[in-house]
């Protein structure tokens, strides 16, 4: 991915100017390189490429917000873009490339995202679903691996026999480099054996499309009302649950079902990699009815 821009160096101190550094920062070999480059390209497209470090001030920030709202971008997309701008400015400040502190006030509160998980019944329906299409079978098997590891797609999609050790699955999280050790479910072992010791390979985009098809076929069609912002407009829409399922739903499903099965929070966190109980509890999804069923076994209600 290339950005056709004539970048320039700051003549007074030899430091890279804002745009030169933004591109360098965005190209770092990290999993986030695509969204980083996307933010760099979008901000340059909307604001031009003449800004210096000192020009990226509160006025720059509000003009950028205005332009993104005018295009009808969602609040979460705007928030993510501003977060990239903030990160670039903060990095440049630490490296003493500038002394502009206006960036510390750059903030857009993200919108609540309707993230779903599959109930135990829904997951069982996916597992037992008869499928003739080989790619759909691969997607279903990979989704099951994701559910029974509660891992990110970047981790559960690359598991192999090298990650198996005495009945446990061991891997380093790609995002955090933290080591995770979890019991190897017979379901995972059966799937890996089916594919010669590895999990089935599917591109992330293809997988996202196929898991929706699979969940639709499994009858996961509960209607869910979601709220979205588009620019300055607020939109309510209703979708069937299968439409909201993605590769990340497997991780949320695994984390939520672990918690609902009575596994202590701190043990769940050792599997998911969450650092705080607050972040873990925000991550899981439990309806009021499911919470009531969990409470029904509490001695207080006996």
Question: What features would you describe in this structure?
Answer:
The N terminus is likely disordered. This protein has 2 domains: 88 residues; 182 residues, hpI Integrase, Chain A. Helices cover 49% and strands 9% of the residues. The chain has 13 helices and 5 strands. Helix 1 runs antiparallel to helix 2, helix 1 packs across helix 4 and helix 10 packs antiparallel against helix 11. With 302 residues, it is mainly α. The strands form 2 sheets. A 3-stranded antiparallel β-sheet has the order 1-2-3. A two-stranded antiparallel ribbon has the order 4-5. The N and C termini lie far apart (62 Å).
The CATH topology of the largest domain turns out to be hpI Integrase, Chain A
How large is the share of residues in beta strands? 5-15%
From the helix content, strand content and strand pairing, which structural class follows?
mainly alpha
Order of helices and strands: HHHHHHHEEEHHEEHHHH
The largest pleated sheet is described as: 3 strands, antiparallel
Number of helices: 13
Total DSSP E strands: 5
Range of helix content: 40-55%
Number of domains: 2
Helices and strands, with pairings:
Elements: H1 18-26, H2 33-47, H3 58-70, H4 75-94, H5 120-128, H6 134-149, H7 153-156, E1 164-165, E2 168-172, E3 179-183, H8 186-194, H9 204-217, E4 223-230, E5 233-240, H10 247-260, H11 265-272, H12 277-283, H13 288-296
Antiparallel strand pairs: 1-2, 2-3, 4-5
Helix pairs in contact: 1-2, 1-4, 2-4, 6-9, 6-10, 10-11
